[in-house]
Specification:
Helix content: 40-55%
Number of strands: 8
Number of helices: 10
Strand content: 5-15%
Radius of gyration: 18 Å
Largest sheet: 8 strands, parallel
CATH architecture: Alpha-Beta Barrel
C-alpha cells in the first residue's frame, strides 16, 4: 500500500506540462475501481456534480460537508491511487471554516488533492471577492501543512465563465498561486489562442476541462497543459449508455455486448 504522503507527492508530480494528468472523473467506489483498472490511469478525481447527483441532491454544495467527506472516503478507500476531490467552495462561509474542513477531508478520507472554486454559486454566476478567495486558498494550504500532507490544490478560476475579463482571470490565477495553489483550473480556455495566452501569463501549471468539440487531448498536451478533467461529462457518458441499453432491452432488441462486462469491488 502507498502512504498518503507518497500519494500526495505522486499526484503533484503527475501534473506535468506536456505530459498532462488525464482524470476520468468518478463519483463512488465502483466507478473509482473500474477507472483505476483502465490502462494508463495514474490518479483519480471526483466531480462534485456527479457525487451530488448520485445522492439525489443538487450540485453547488447540495451535500453537507460530512456527506462530501464521506463520499471522498468511500472513493479513496476503493483504490490505491491518489485521489483529488472536487471540494466545491470549501463548505464554509469563511476561510477559517474552509481550513477546518480541508483538514478534516485530508485526515478522514485519505484524499491528497482538492479543487476549490471562486464562484459564489454556479461557475457562470458572480465570483467571490478576490481577497476572500485568496484567503480560502491560503487556508487550504495551511490545512495541508498542518497535517503533514502536501495537499495538491487545483484552484479554479471562474472569471471567464461568469463573463468577466481576461485580465481579472489572470490576476486571480496568479494570486491563488501566490497563496499556495499548485495548479490553476482555468475555465473558459475554449481555443488554442486562449490556452497559449494563459500558459504565457499565468505563473504556474494549468489544468482545463476537455470535452466533445474542444481542443483535442494530444494538442492540449503539446501546448503544455498539466491536467485535463471532464467533470460531470463522465456521468453523462455512463447514463447515456445505460439509457440506450434500457431502450434496446425494453424494445426486445439484441442484448448489448456490454451486458457481459464483469466487475467486482
Amino acid at each position: 500500500m502507498t502512504t498518503q504522503l507518497e500519494k500526495a507527492e505522486l499526484l503533484n508530480r503527475l501534473h506535468a506540462p506536456g505530459d498532462p494528468l488525464i482524470v476520468t472523473n468518478v463519483w463512488d467506489a465502483i466507478t473509482a475501481k473500474i477507472v483505476s483498472e483502465a490502462p494508463g490511469v495514474r490518479a483519480l478525481a471526483s466531480a462534485s456534480h456527479s457525487v451530488s447527483f448520485a445522492r439525489g441532491v443538487p450540485d453547488n454544495e447540495g451535500l453537507t460537508v460530512d456527506a462530501a467527506i464521506e463520499a471522498a472516503r468511500i472513493i479513496a478507500g476503493a483504490v490505491d491511487l491518489p485521489l483529488s476531490v472536487d471540494f466545491e467552495k470549501g463548505y464554509a462561509p469563511d476561510a477559517v471554516g474552509v481550513g477546518d474542513n480541508v483538514r478534516r477531508l485530508i485526515e478522514e478520507s485519505g484524499a491528497v488533492g482538492i479543487n476549490i472554486e471562486d464562484s459564489l454559486e454556479a461557475a457562470n454566476g458572480p465570483q467571490r471577492n478576490i481577497d476572500d478567495s485568496v484567503a480560502r486558498v491560503a487556508a487550504a494550504r495551511d490545512a495541508g501543512n498542518a497535517t503533514g500532507i502536501p495537499l495538491v490544490i487545483n484552484a479554479r478560476v471562474d472569471t471567464l465563465a461568469g463573463g468577466g475579463s481576461w485580465e481579472e482571470a489572470v490576476t486571480r490565477a496568479n494570486a491563488y498561486l501566490d497563496a499556495g495553489a499548485d495548479v490553476i483550473f482555468f475555465l473558459g480556455l475554449s481555443d488554442e489562442d486562449r490556452v497559449k495566452r494563459a500558459l504565457d501569463e499565468v505563473n504556474g501549471r494549468i489544468s482545463t476541462i476537455g470535452g466533445l468539440g474542444g481542443i483535442p487531448l494530444k494538442r492540449l498536451a503539446e501546448l503544455g497543459i498539466s491536467r485535463v478533467s471532464f467533470g460531470p461529462q463522465t456521468l453523462g457518458l455512463t447514463l447515456a449508455a445505460l439509457q440506450r441499453a434500457a431502450t434496446t432491452l425494453t424494445a426486445l432488441g439484441d442484448y448489448p455486448e456490454d451486458l457481459s462486462f464483469r466487475f467486482e469491488l
